[in-house]
């Protein structure tokens, strides 16, 4: 098993490479704090065997960040961060048990070619079903990326709280004539338990089997593939699955597939 300091330092490296030096620095200090038996070691006790895909390091960052957003902490500077793990330990420990999912509007740049391909190939309006929608900002990609928060207020969307597999099964329970249904997600699958990932994929593929030319289904996803992510598009009827683009994890750069 990989020791906790190593896991935090691995995520610190990812943060540094992806343009988040502040989080990288916090995680490096947190790793060193574990090694000397400090508050980070205490707060993470019992999580030593958490699976890698549960993103323990990001859950720690997210827990403290949430307390800042709630007004319980003034900032995330290291001194505040470390002290909060003692003074606010109960709240942070409970938040650690919650999963995280990252999303950002910059990824629309990578998903756009897939949406355009579905629209061009079907000639139908798009019905968008996003897994891991966060605040629903990427559901408004057609209004472009500027002032995404303002657009979220101007053009509200419905965001449901549910298991991905269960939600997809309900939404895809019957074909929707006259629109091209697009199930999409960006950097989501790694946060789901393996059993739920299988259930979700089964729900999508089962819906694909009953799709028609007047009620087509597309599955557009941007998910990890080594140092970069891949944007892939599957479309039914037919079930063709193709690579659309290779992209950085935050949406830049985008290299379209030939």
Features:
258 residues, alpha/beta, six-stranded mixed β-sheet, 10 helices, elongated
Describe the structure.
There is one protein chain. The protein is an alpha/beta fold and 258 residues long. 43% of the residues lie in helices and 16% in strands. The chain is built from ten helices and six strands, in the order αααααααβααβαββββ. Strands 1-2-3-4-5-6 form a six-stranded mixed beta sheet, with helices on both faces. Strand 3 (217-225) and strand 4 form a beta hairpin. Helix 1 (4-17) runs antiparallel to helix 2 (21-35), helix 5 packs across helix 6 and helix 9 (164-171) runs parallel beside helix 10 (194-209). The longest helix is centred in the C-terminal third of the chain and has 16 residues, at 194-209. The chain is elongated. It starts with a helix and ends with a strand. The mean pLDDT is 90.
Draw up the topology in text.
Elements: H1 4-17, H2 21-35, H3 39-43, H4 56-69, H5 78-87, H6 89-96, H7 108-122, E1 126-130, H8 148-154, H9 164-171, E2 180-186, H10 194-209, E3 217-225, E4 228-236, E5 240-247, E6 254-256
Parallel strand pairs: 1-2, 2-3
Antiparallel strand pairs: 3-4, 4-5, 5-6
Provide the structure class: alpha/beta
Question: How would you describe the shape?
Answer: elongated
Counting H and I runs of at least 4 residues, what is the number of helices? 10
Mean pLDDT: 90
Give the number of DSSP strands: 6
Please indicate the percent range of residues in DSSP E strands (runs of 2 or more). 15-25%
The main β sheet shows up as: 6 strands, mixed
Low-confidence stretches: none
N- and C-termini, Cα separation: 41 Å
Helix percentage: 40-55%
Supply Rg.
Answer: 20 Å
Strand numbers in spatial order across the main sheet:
1-2-3-4-5-6
Spell out the helices and strands N to C. HHHHHHHEHHEHEEEE
